[in-house]
Write a structure and sequence with these properties.
single chain, about 300 residues, mainly alpha, 14 helices, about 0% strand
């Protein structure tokens, strides 16, 4: 028996999958850092590997990419800015603060979608965003409270979330843009921006080839199996999903990140982590489950 999913359902599943993939991206990064690479240069290497794979695709599709013009370029730049800023924020502030500030993204998505697309901010989405915020506070410590930006790393995390929200809205605005072209542009733009950031902020830590080579086989396998498909999903799914909903679905990154860190890095995962992850998962799935329940009630 073959299950037939609607376009909306497939798009939501793509966003969930994309978030889950990004929840694992710390694993090859940890390998690069273990080889002695500076955090910023580890991101350059991280972008360089998929960029090599997509260059032939860009060459084959260059005429189509040229026709897409400035709108496609702007979306590519906002996506590359988002991940570059987020990656840099982890270097210059606490990971927890960077993650919490980045994942104000559903709020930016809702506001931008309202302003640019005329999308309504439904009560259920406000409830979902509140659940997500509560889940992060529980997961990362209620005593800490929500972080207010205090240093350059905090502001980078906040800006990274805004730029990814803008990317999601722009993908929705321009459904005619190919997710393949967006994916190729994302990696190439990310390589340029992360390289410029590393050169500007940490020029003395550029790695030698023999320093990176031990970590490359695992990174290449990870990129082929997960990073390229996950990035494609993250730029295809938002075409057909409300931007605020897509941003909430992307929060599977936190769920998978917390669980994978507990399994593979020995990070703690007790009652507090279980409650926080459950709240975030509920926030991501609240609207899809309500829609499914409504559809079943009608049949």
């Amino acid at each position: 028996m073959v299950l037939a999913f609607s376009l909306d359902t497939r798009a939501r599943l793509a966003c969930l999958y994309a978030g889950a993939v990004w929840g694992l991206f710390w694993i090859p990064l940890r390998g690069l850092e273990s080889a002695g690479l500076h955090d910023l240069w580890a991101m350059v290497v991280y972008f360089a590997v998929p960029s090599l794979f997509v260059l032939p695709v860009v060459a084959l599709r260059r005429a189509r990419i040229r026709r897409a013009g400035l709108p496609l370029l702007l979306t590519v730049v906002t996506s590359g800015m988002a991940l570059t800023l987020y990656s840099a924020s982890i270097v210059f502030t606490d990971v927890i603060r960077a993650l919490m500030l980045f994942y104000l993204m559903p709020i930016w998505s809702a506001i931008l979608a309202r302003a640019l697309l005329g999308e309504r901010i439904l009560p259920i989405r406000i409830i979902a965003m509140s659940l997500a915020a509560l889940g992060m506070l529980v997961l990362f410590g209620l005593g800490v409270g929500w972080p207010v930006p205090r240093n350059i790393g905090d502001w980078m995390g906040l800006a990274g979330g805004f730029f990814w929200a803008l990317t999601v809205v722009r993908v929705r605005m321009h459904e005619d843009h190919s997710a393949m072209d967006l994916t190729c542009g994302f990696f190439l733009c990310g390589l340029v921006l992360s390289g410029a950031t590393a050169l500007a902020l940490s020029p003395g830590h550029a790695p030698a080839l023999d320093q990176t080579s031990p970590a490359l086989p695992g990174l290449i396998l990870f990129v082929i199996l997960l990073v390229i498909p996950g990035t494609y999903a993250s730029l295809w799914g938002p075409k057909y999903v409300n931007p605020a909903v897509a941003s909430l679905l992307f929060m599977t990154e936190i769920v998978v990140g917390a669980i994978s860190a507990a399994l593979f890095a020995g990070e703690p995962f007790g009652l507090r982590e279980t409650i926080g992850v459950t709240l975030i998962a509920c926030a991501s799935l609240l609207e899809p489950l309500m829609i499914l329940g409504t559809a079943r009630a009608r049949t």
